[in-house]
Amino acid sequence: MSKINPKVANRRNKSKEEIANERIEYFVQRFSKEHLYLAYHAAFPLSLTPELLYLLWARFQKSIHGEVLNIPWIAVGDILLSNLCDEVGHELYEMDLAVRTSLLKRLQEDENFGQQRINELSGFLLDYIRQKLQSDDPDIQAFAQIQRWVALAYTKPSQVAHELALAFSKLDNQAERVRLQSLTETLAEPLAEFQPLLTSVLGMGHVARNDFKVVTASSEQLLKESVYPLHYPEPQHCLCINLNCPSPKRPFKEHPCQACGSDLLLNRRYRVIDTLVQTRNRVCRLYDSVDIKDGNKPKVIKVLYTDNDEIISRFDRGADVLINHWVSGIPKVDKDGYFYIEFPKNQTLAYCLVMEKIDGINLEQFLENQNHLPITEKQAINWLKQLTIILRDLDEKEFFHRDIKPSNIMVKNSNQELVLIDIDAVRAITKAVLDGKTIATIGSDGYMAPEQRIGRAIPQSDFYALGRTFVHLLTGKAPNRLEQNRNGTLLWRSIAPKLSKPFADLIDSLMDWSPNNRPKNTAEILQRLEQIERNLERQQQVKQLLIFNKVVGVVVLLSFTFLVYKSINPEVSPIIAPTPSIQTLTPTTTPTETPIETPTFNTNNQKCRIRQFTNLLDNSALAKDVVEILQDKRVVSKDEEIRKIQQFDVRQLNYCDLNIYIRLSDNSIPSSTLKNKIADMIKNRFDYVGNIKVEQLL
To answer: Which of 155, 187, 203 is the last residue of a domain?
Structure first.
């Protein structure tokens, strides 16, 4: 096996870095420091669209210190068309890996931004792709997943390393393996500490390319080791959970707590890192923790500090459901994940429940993140179906939840799946429940069913809370902030006018004052949702058919009109292609130099009237396409003559003939060489072009 000389490899890497820095410096000289600030931010996403870059420009107008950056809006277009970006698809751009790495390094080192801005960019990108992760289009969904990994790589590298290794181990498609290898190479810097993962994924990527010379024999084994167990970075400190500890923040490996004597290694495997949530009365807290027997894998520990028998009983019941009656859609708990601990000089026990850490946010936070904008009907149907299935599975185990609300529902970042949390309120469906006897009142104001308020909760009480939860999601307003009529019916439909009537009717039926008028079971809800989806799909098909018929009608009418016009006027008049006002200038004098003219081609080719990419019929289609090419070339071309083009105008004559007028930045006369370059460039791109004349714009 041939080996690459390390010095040669180093020179190659250095060369790439130098070239990248030269491109960046040229960009700054050509534009401004403010343009560079936006370029820093543009480097964070793996791929860019004009929309995404505009949102970055609008969102990050200030430094982390609150200073205005004064980035002009035109910087959006300047960056996409500059030498920093390559167009890889229609309105899709990517930066060269070395350029992207250099810009991100500068962003982190710049005192105006630093790691804080990286964290802000990560949150921004996660919010941007959240809806796209639910797309029906698998390509959009896959693209969003890649952007998600990019967003998390700089803030949660251990999680991304684990997910990449797991995803790669499941792939049997060669093209997908190559794509994932390319992504891993891109994220090599933030994932540098996970060397086994990098070695294995890069090695198996070469297998996918049939490049066996560079594959190590242990790549497949390394990949397996990268998946389970994956060792997460070791925290610097841990937390003593004794509420009376005078100094709870302790060194990570300390045991026991030197400040109060309490156990820091809970159940001989868990260490608490930080507090996530605490109740006002301090009875219950959620802690961020790690499992040292599972490579410091993140966990959540729910700790109950009380000697109240009723509260302990409810906590026991929730633990029992999670451990012995688990269903998909609620948190997982290890078999040994429920225990209690004692503290020195304290008679009150602390009951601990260790659960999987769900990477996501609850739906209350989800609404806050999008400024309380309502979710779409399509998303609501998907989420309602998910929650109904969770309730169905709980019902089959003879349990119901009793405290459904947005803050008790989490949405995973990875796949937008919902998880129903806070299982303490779960109640078994006993004879007392079915007989309507009074039981303990548990629930939340605004979501609690009327019968639940008087201690007579039944499984249909969850339907009421479910309906109220979706009113909150579909209007952006909490139910207790909305008006009700005399019958207790919530007046919400006027705030969500875009919903279909059948779906709005279903939500209202879930919230009916009488449990007898609500759906009888989860099967009825799922059946109605299925019918609603079929109706919406049928309506969409009809809408698409109507649009298609209209387009066909317009095309036929235009074709007929043109044929009639041509029969009356055999000579077709010139068609002037509209271009941006800063570039279009009609020549006012006759050109001073003999124009360069290409050989005569067929000038009646219909392709000249069809826009590229969009395939729309347009009499000046060729001229408009040429305008876009000239716009790009004068920015990205390395040819000094082409980059001197300051203004231009393109006119389309007789279908495929073109007159191109250019003005140079120094007002010099365009040379015959430049004219030939422009003509050849257009002929190479459009093999159906007719005669091309390139003249000076005066």
So the answer is: 155
Q: Quote the tokens at residue 542.
A: 């009809």
CA dihedral 303, 308, 312, 314 (to 10 degrees): -120
143 within 8 A of 150, measured Cβ to Cβ: no
Residue with tokens 């060194």: 251
The CB-side HSE value for 633 (13 A sphere, CA atoms) comes to 19
Residue 199 pLDDT > 60: no
Please tell me the distance from the alpha carbon of residue 271 to that of residue 264, in angstroms, as a whole number.
6
Handedness of CA 559, 565, 570, 574 (dihedral sign): negative
Mean of the pLDDT values across residues 441-447?
Answer: 80
- Report whether 670 contacts 664 (CB < 8 A): yes
Question: Letter for the amino acid at 336?
Answer: D
28 lies in which domain range? 14-155
CATH of the domain at 283: 3.30.200.20
Residues 524, 584, single domain; the answer is no
Walk across the sheet containing 333-343 and list its strands. Answer: 270-278, 284-291, 297-305, 346-356, 333-343
pLDDT per position as a tens digit, 467-525: 999 999 999 999 989 998 888 789 999 988 889 999 999 999 999 999 999 999 999 99
| Backbone dihedral angles phi then psi of residue 575, each to the nearest 5 degrees | -115, 120
Backbone angles phi, psi at 94, to 5 degrees: -135, 150
The residue type found at 539 is Q
Adjacent-strand bridge partners of 305: 350
pLDDT tens-digit profile of 336-370? 889 999 999 888 889 999 998 888 889 998 888 77
Same-domain status, 439 and 314: no
List residues bridging with 272 in a β-sheet. 289
DSSP state at residue 416:
-
Number of domains forming the structure of the chain: 4
Q: Which of 392, 425, 394 is nearest to 408 (CA)?
A: 425
DSSP of 169-190: HH---HHHHHHHHHHHHHTTTT
3-state secondary structure of 511: coil
In a 13 Å sphere around the CA of 265, the CA atoms on its Cβ side amount to: 10
Q: Are residues 391 and 487 in the same domain?
A: yes
Is residue 263 located within the same domain as residue 397?
A: no
Q: What is the pTM of this model?
A: 0.53
pLDDT digit string, tens, across residues 362-380: 999 888 877 788 998 988 9
Residue 180 sits at φ, ψ, to 5 deg, of: -70, -35
CA angle at 502 for the pair 501 and 506, rounded to the nearest 5°: 115
| Domain limit, last residue, from 303, 336, 356 | 356
Are 519 and 649 part of one and the same domain?
A: no
Task: Tell me the C-alpha distance between 167 and 177, whole Å.
Answer: 9
The angle that helices 97-109 and 114-130 make with each other, rounded to 10 degrees, is 130
Cβ contacts of residue 369 below 8 Å, gap of 6+?
127, 361
- Is cis: bond before 298, omega within 30 of 0? no
